[in-house]
Structure prediction request, 511 residues.
Amino acid sequence: MKALEKPLDLHEENDRLKAEIGELKALILELKEQNTWLKKQVFGPKSEKVVDHADQLEFPGLDLLQEEESPEESIVKEHTRKKRTATEKDKLVYPDDLPIEQILLDISEDQKICPLTGEPLKKIGEEITKKLAIKPASYFIKEFIKPKYVSPSRPELGVISREMPTGIFQKSKADESLLAHIVTMKFADHLPLYRIQEIMQRDKIMVSRQTLSYWVIKIGEALIPLYDLMEHRVLKSSSIYVDESPVKVLVPGKKKAHEGYMWIYVGGGEGMTPPYLLYDFFMNRNYGNVIDKLENYQGLLHSDKYGAYTTLAKQKGIIWCPCWAHIRRYFVEAQSGNQKFKAYVLRNIRYLYMFEKIAKKRSPEERLKIRKEKEEPIIDDLIEQVKKKLIEGKALPKSKYMKALKYFAGLTPYMKNYLNHEEASIDNNLAERSLRPLTIGRKNWLFVGSEKGGKATATLLSLIQTCRHLKINPREYIEDVMRRIMDQPMSRLSELLPDEWAMAQQKPDTS
Prediction:
């Protein structure tokens, strides 16, 4: 006799189907969020700006913000629009000492006779119109002539002549001015070497890409002492901003490029705007790369929530200031969940940034006071409200909304650290902005040629992007430093750092 089959438990089956439906709904929502995010990345604006005016005028403390409002601003329905006034930025501005090439636009000789009286016309003045013009890069040969001398009566003493000027490439046919031009095009203008080669070929200057690569690496190696000194100053500063970004590296014998990483450390000075941008290259993204670098660091550390930084946050002497821009980004990307609460969080984060904009302009004492009286209550309230939402547990576990809540909650022990230190910042945007040149360059030169090339890239990026950060002409700086570094005493090496070099250029020559 056939055994009776186990009767189907309808209640269990119903519960199973309900759970399965719940999982499928969560998956559909997660996929919808991913699709919305991807469409925004491809077709939509990249800005994370969220316009939300609900209840904004009811917030206590906005009187301070209104005090800072520009008199040139006028309130227009739904938004504030600044009146546009003409400034020097709207005009073509150039130095007064540019060479002038005069072009005479005179009338012909027969036109200088009056057709009615036959008398010669009298010149009463002239009208001058100025136009800014350009000539292609002008290459020229430097020919060093060294007269040689010998004693007429004692020729055995040998020939006497002056030594060639010292430099990185003593026997090279390339002058420092050309080398500085090449590295500036690559690391400031983000041109790959093959494009630099083509540009030079248009002016009938033939040079191989291998030679260009060799020059770049050798320049990077020669300037390592300046890089090391800059690194020392960054690690001794009281506040550092850190971030990292991938960069492709060519590996011999492999078709696929290896993924290396470039770290950025912004620091080296006092106040909220450090002078130095220090890049550091590694062949991987191991925690040890940054942990080893900062093992003896003591001070403020601004960063995102990457695991290496959360590990450093527990290190004695480091005060971690997690990035509020990243917190905001998680809520901006949350397309599901409680959208009213999401708007509430984003609105309050906007208030924090509005107060910070004012605090940065004030004295250190006033800055701390604004943060304590205006910003701390906002953060305390946000922490309390996010905790309540997590306890309620109404959000789907895998949704971006839940991830935003958990990301926020994980940072609560540290998110008020910036309030207590005058040189601290609310976010890590200074480091993120410093990675943009690398991102732009990566799209142009595509990859780093080797691990050795990565180290040279880090050195030259550090010096050239620091120049740009300090409004220094990187080509003039690199050219001068390459001419001087071989003779510069180690005790005075700091004079060749971008900030000190720029200060020396501004001093009048008393020699």
